[in-house]
Amino acid sequence: MLLFTLGGGVLGFTSHISLFPDSDLVIVTLANIFKAVLPPFVGLYFADEVLDLPRTRDWLGKESMERAKENYDDKEATLPPRLKNKPAAHSLEEYEGVYSSPLYAGDVTISLETVVDENGLRKSELHFLFNRFTSKVEHYHFESFLFEWDFWSSKATQLMTFITGENGNVDGLQLPYLDEKISFKKQARVKHDSNGQSVFGWDQAQLTM
What we know:
By secondary structure, the chain is of the alpha+beta class.
């Protein structure tokens, strides 16, 4: 049986189309998650049902779970060699902010949080929030910081890079996407409560340049 498929997505969305021209059947699957494993297998499952094909493979069980495990086990992205004694150009507080891109729904929020380490000592560290994905952010070298994409179907440690504007302030950041870099521009400050924790109902007032 002839089958044509095409899949794609951006951060936050995935789509897949399965076309069976000999049977006049088209199945489109949409998911509001990046790197979703199920969409191509959903098409195959419904094709078996609609066309009354032999159930030779467990598309929504064994097949999709094996694919998800392969994706999730691929944890480490290719990172450049870490350069020692190359500090960040700004204090941690200066990286805080809400960053947005016209190409993507949802903002990236970088917040400075107060946490308690294993020795019971309080310390400050940066955190990353994009849609529902969160990660601790650790300095790598220069203006690059480590963070972790942790989707239900895949997990990878990658680098985000902050951008300094002409006025010397942190002006934006770049996130990796496949072989490209997505640019987000800094838009607003992050508000804090009396305990120093970030409040995600931030003031959308524009930063003073």
